[in-house]
Each structure stands twice: as C-alpha cells, then as structure tokens.
Amino acid sequence: MSTLNNEEIEKKLSDLNEWNRADAKTIERNFSFQQFLTGISFVEKIAHHAENVQHHPNIIIDHTSITVRLSTLDEGGITKKDVDSAAAYNQIFQEVNV
C-alpha cells in the first residue's frame, strides 16, 4: 500500500464529514457526545474495528470530546487504510450518537 498524494487526500476528505488534515501525514476528526459514557462506547466500537482491520488510530479522550487521528505509520503518511477507517468511524458515530 502506498501513501496518497495531496490531491487524492483532499478529494477523499471532501467526502468524509468533518475529517481534516492534522498535518502532512495525519487526518483527524473530533467527535462530540452528550454524555461521557456514550463517547467511551464509541471508543470501544472503533477499537474493535481497528483490531479487526489491524489499523489502529490515535485516540484522545477529553470528557465528552473524542479526537481520532489516523496515519499509516509503516507507510509514512495517509493511505487508503486511513480513509477507509475514517469512513467506518463516521458510520460508528452515527450508530452510537442517536
């Protein structure tokens, strides 16, 4: 798997609700929840997804705010794995945050 170029990344991000570039090698999104435990449930679900696809995010938990950062470290940047995981996390967010 190879890293996506800037044009590919920008196109993919335009399709991903609220995901942005954190830096040249990382995409991120902040997810907000009404309750702490709802956010923790979200983290648990994305952890299971990450384990299943063997692509693990950086997760920052700050009360009802969860920031998820994705980068493919062994490729040195943003790859299809990151974009696919971001899309999956958006779906999980919709399921959890009802």
Descriptive overview:
The model has no long low-confidence stretch (mean pLDDT 95). Strands 1-2-4-3 form a four-stranded antiparallel β-sheet, with helices on one face. The protein is built from three helices and four strands; from the N terminus they run H-E-E-H-E-E-H. 21% of the residues are buried. 46% of the residues lie in helices and 22% in strands. It has 98 residues and is of the alpha+beta class. The protein is globular, with a radius of gyration of 13 Å. The N and C termini lie far apart (35 Å).
Structure, briefly:
The chain is an alpha+beta fold and 98 residues long. 46% of the residues lie in helices and 22% in strands.
The ordered H/E elements are HEEHEEH
Q: How much helicity do the residues have?
A: 40-55%
Give the percentage of residues in beta strands. Answer: 15-25%
What does the radius of gyration come to? 13 Å
User: What class would the helix/strand composition place it in?
Assistant: alpha+beta
Q: Given the structure, what is the number of helices?
A: 3
Mean pLDDT: 95
- How many β-strand stretches? 4
Q: Main sheet?
A: 4 strands, antiparallel
Q: First CA to last CA: what distance? A: 35 Å
Task: Flag low-confidence runs.
Answer: none
Shape: globular
Largest sheet, order of strands side by side? 1-2-4-3
